[in-house]
Amino acid sequence: xxQYDFDLITLGAGSxxxxxxxxxxxxxxxVAVVEESRLGGTCVMRGCVPKKLLVYGAHFAEDFEDARGFxxxxxxxxxxxxxxxxxxNKELDRLEGIYGRILRDSGVNIIEGRGKLADAxxxxxxxxxxxxxxxLVACGGWPSMPDVPGIExxxxxxxALDLPSLPESxxxxxxxxxxxxxxxIFNALGVDVTVIIRAGNILxxxxxxxxxxxxxxxxxxxxxxxRETIVRSIEKNETGYSxxxxxxxxxxxxxxxxxxGRAPNTKGIGLEEAGVKLEKNGSVCVNDWNQSSVESVYxxxxxxxxxxxxxxxxxxxxxxxxxxxNDNPIKVDYADIPSAVFSTxxxxxxxxxxxxxxxxxxxxxxxxxxxxxxHTLSGRDETTLMKLIVDQKTDKVIGCHLLGPDCPEIxxxxxxxxxxxxxxxxxxxxxGIHPTAAEELVTMREKRPDHGSKT
Length: 455
Known about the structure:
455 residues, alpha/beta, FAD/NAD(P)-binding domain, Enolase-like, domain 1, seven-stranded mixed beta sheet, five-stranded antiparallel beta sheet, 12 helices, 21 strands, 23% strand, globular
């Protein structure tokens, strides 16, 4: 039996790596975590947490406006971007301290530096070699950008979270959730925002009614969406940047941000050299037990490119440690995972889109559009949308798609209902809470006329 320095070495102290490592340590394993940046990873340091703090900060702009309809005179509010960023960074420092303590309390060793596989049981960090029975790759993802002339001038979501000052205008290239979230943040804070997308609509992969309604709401708020548009080049000039589009159109802007996707952060850490099979995009190929093509090497989270969501990485981390260090084999169930987009207004969704559901068989669709009660007095022109997709044969609700205030919170509980196989009849038998937006989910009775796959 070979002797190793550790039972487990984890590459990456993001949400999935931390969960796996601290559980394994708590179960008595000798564990080390290697991290070259900050404890907490993408979600805590460069993603979900700081982004949502900025969403909260930006939304006060509308809250101050809406207050007048309820009798409040708040005067002319002022905003200081550096204060928001400083307070955000203070909170991230606090969270990083908590992550460090959680790991230490579980007996986990923290090794600072960039880890690289030297072989199937050895990790090299800053010239030192550490051995382990198992190696867990949890290195996450990183923003990816196309090869466009002038791409060196652009920022990504990483830099957007720490801008020293707000620009007067920004061009955001991309139509995914990161793009629409930052478009909402900057727009609410008074920045002139233009979103450029190659496709005909934003949020590819989401339900079409949600995509169409959010795009309309964004444009209503003053965001320009340039559809079916390609960036040819970016040049820096005296006042900012010029963005040349396909054809002859040129946009002048203070800042250019690319949010065109993320790629597994696996380059240069010795995976292929150690025999680990990777996909073309660099993601680690794993089986249902998170095991790679090399028996002793495992991977989870965004670097496997399965479902790029923090709670999924956490679930995979738990499954890994329960299976390997607690004699409790667990596989992650990837069906009916709730998710949210913190756009303005926000989205909550779980289950199949209408298009996906139609591919599986006959469905009924229930949909409701209405003005949130708050805006009957605030006067804001904003639409809430709620949509249920029901399997005709079983009456099970197989898709829920929501757009409007608090919809991410509502979607979390809908995830429980879909996991339990709730039927439309059971939704209908549930008494609503009045007055709330969520009561629409249990009071929709009329099916939308079926016009096939077109919504």
